[in-house]
Amino acid sequence: MRFQVCLFAAFLAGWPAVVSAAELDGTKTIFANTRDKQRIPLGTVRFSPRGGGVSSFEISMDHARFADYFLSMKEFKCLDGKVEIVCHVPYPYSNPRTVSAKDMSWLEHDLLFLFKRPGEFGASMRNGLYFRLEPDERGWVGSPQAIDLNYISAPPDAADVAPYDPATRDDVAPGERWIESLLIE
């Protein structure tokens, strides 16, 4: 029996730590990891516990890191990559701005982006990026998923339900996008 307990403990030690409610407290930095091995600080997110494992959050993007682009009759804050320009698209509607260790969807919605090639004119809202956040040993890592930003061109029927559910997102192949992941640490 003692051998089995040791084996089970060793098995669990290899698993990444699970995010606790306590980790959804304080200010964390948001980084973009690019395929050309850059680690770009994008801004911060401040978590404030509200009880019951829920925290509110507030994002503050560092606009000095972004270039101004006027695309498709709208101003965007964008990162210039050699192979892609990636623009932040803040979720345009009111939302609860809350998260829990089991549900980071509203934070994911405030970290929407679109991409375009440097030579392309305008922006295609079909080229949206959603970063699905998962806990890891240092915080959260967001893997890119493809979305159509036209889906949120009108307010959702229910303001308290995050519109981009798994059925509206497609995984992106590794190395396909310039920003390979977002990190929150």
From TrEMBL:
Domain of life: Bacteria
Signal sequence coordinates: 1-21
Gene source species: Parazoarcus communis
Keywords: Signal
Protein name (record): Uncharacterized protein
